[in-house]
Structure to design on (251 residues):
């Protein structure tokens, strides 16, 4: 169990460094797409090579009604949280409007979906269900959220406070996604990608979250924590650990 989590995390971090270096050398605009987002997907590829017979990825596209319904639910939560954050900024007399978009909106939608899928193939399609063979949905979501948050090591350039708030936000979002995915019937990739892309697009449209400003990050981290608590309390009890052959065969 812990060996695989360590191997996946290590490989993902190593690929992240390689992809960041490749982006710096080849020059794709990071506002359009970040190559590092494909590191978790490459990590899953390595897990298939090392543990081929017992590596499972929940990346089905059917049942369509389930995938669409769960995606609509989680995107609705994202929109509600973003609107609440705008309201907080207005009440506090803070500027919340982001600068003009660096690329046409339609192009950004496509690249955000592609990038989000690259991440979620690893975090919520592989690691989340793998952890749930041993732990509850909540505990699995917390572990994935912490790893996912600290994986964004670029946030440290803005200071420990900013990075700490970012990790809180990422962990809370992970709890929300984990709760919604409980009845997704292995359509994790579709649902998590919809949520992830919606968060990234929403933050780009509303805030400049990578500017290093603490106030916007504190607002979204707090609101996502509230959302995570509410969603967990509403959907709890549906995600007991699932003992499967995957667990029995793990190292």
């Amino acid at each position: 169990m812990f060996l695989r989590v360590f191997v996946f995390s290590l490989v993902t971090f190593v690929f992240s460094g390689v992809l960041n270096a490749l982006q710096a050398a080849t020059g794709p605009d990071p506002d359009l797409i970040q190559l590092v987002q494909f590191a978790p997907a490459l990590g899953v590829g390595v897990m298939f090579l090392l543990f081929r017979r017992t590596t499972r990825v929940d990346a089905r596209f059917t049942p369509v009604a389930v995938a669409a319904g769960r995606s609509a639910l989680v995107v609705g939560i994202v929109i509600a949280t973003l609107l609440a954050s705008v309201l907080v900024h207005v009440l506090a007399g803070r500027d919340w409007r982001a600068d003009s978009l660096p690329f046409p909106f339609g192009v950004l939608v496509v690249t955000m979906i592609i990038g989000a899928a690259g991440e979620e193939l690893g975090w919520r399609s592989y690691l989340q269900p793998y952890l749930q063979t041993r732990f509850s949905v909540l505990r699995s979501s917390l572990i994935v959220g912490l790893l996912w948050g600290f994986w964004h090591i670029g946030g440290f350039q803005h200071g420990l406070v900013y990075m700490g708030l970012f990790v809180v936000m990422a962990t809370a979002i992970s709890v929300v996604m984990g709760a919604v995915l409980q009845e997704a019937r292995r359509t994790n990739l579709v649902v998590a990608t919809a949520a992830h892309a919606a968060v990234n697009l929403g933050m780009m449209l509303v805030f400049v979250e990578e500017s290093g400003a603490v106030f916007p990050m504190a607002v979204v981290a707090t609101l996502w924590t509230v959302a995570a608590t509410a969603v967990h309390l509403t959907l709890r009890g549906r995600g007991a650990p699932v003992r499967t052959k995957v667990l029995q065969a793990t190292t």
User: Anything to note?
Assistant: The two ends are 6 Å apart (CA to CA).
